[in-house]
Write a structure and sequence with these properties.
Layout (H helix, E strand, L loop, with lengths): L1 H27 L3 E2 L24 E2 L23 E4 L4 E3 L7 E7 L6 H15 L2 H4 L2 E7 L7 H10 L7 E5 L2 H11 L3 E5 L2 E4 L2 E5 L5 E6 L6 H12 L1
Parallel strand pairs: 5-6, 6-7
Antiparallel strand pairs: 1-2, 3-4, 3-7, 5-10, 8-9, 10-11
Length: about 240
């Protein structure tokens, strides 16, 4: 009889310890970070203020903590195996952008008409996204003039347009890679002189799995629907 009581007591204590550990583990998952990232990627387990800039720490987006499926749907742009050069001189595949909501546009750096306005539209979208969602969104520019838009020129374009932060990525591919990707986005473009192209004015939103979920067409259009879709996609 004593042995049975001992087993019951031991079992109850084990369960209590297990529950307590689970509770502590769940609490540990709640993390706060300085919105200005004064201390880099450092996080805190409790609310408070940044010891550097004294701004309130913000709760890290739950979406950034999601475990993404390793599967890729047939509609995903991550099925494309093409390689791209970034403005930082790195070579990547589109699959390396997986995990964030992607906002993409196709432009070229010598454009004097539509592209500056498209760039302004992208910057305006980024500015309107609430701070708690910004870390889960990546803005991607793909050049339709890969012969002239070298990584160095793309970098200078980013600096000149005040879009040189970590949330901005610029890609240079081959002619065939660019044409393939333009077909995916339904972007039409045509070279009309050595440094001039006619092209569609489309901003596209992809979910973290690389599936197209929204497109904004035109220049200087109302972007409320686009902002709402980005936030909705981050929260999924």
């Amino acid at each position: 009889m004593k042995s049975i009581k001992f087993i019951l007591i031991f079992t109850i204590l084990t369960l209590l310890v297990s529950c307590d550990k689970k509770s502590k583990d769940e609490t540990a998952k709640i993390e706060y970070q300085c919105p200005m990232k004064c201390e880099g990627e450092k996080v805190y387990s409790k609310k408070g203020t940044c010891p550097v800039c004294e701004m309130d720490l913000r709760l890290l987006s739950k979406a950034s903590k999601k475990v993404l499926s390793t599967e890729i749907s047939e509609e995903s742009i991550f099925n494309l195996t093409s390689s791209w050069n970034t403005e930082e001189g790195k070579t990547i595949t589109l699959k390396e952008l997986k995990g964030k909501t992607l906002v993409m546009v196709m432009v070229y750096t010598t454009c004097k008409a539509a592209c500056p306005r498209l760039t302004g539209d992208m910057r305006n979208i980024e500015q309107k996204i609430p701070a708690e969602y910004k870390d889960d969104v990546q803005f991607v520019f793909i050049s339709i003039d890969p012969e002239n838009d070298t990584p160095e020129k793309l970098k200078q374009f980013a600096v000149d347009n005040y879009i040189d932060g970590e949330q901005w990525t610029f890609l240079q591919g081959t002619e065939s890679n660019v044409r393939e990707f333009a077909n995916v986005l339904a972007v039409k473009y045509k070279q009309i002189s050595p440094l001039d192209f006619s092209h569609s004015n489309i901003i596209s939103v992809f979910n973290p799995g690389g599936e197209l979920v929204h497109q904004q067409e035109g220049l200087g259009v109302d972007n409320k629907e686009t902002i709402a879709k980005i936030i909705e996609t981050v929260n999924q």
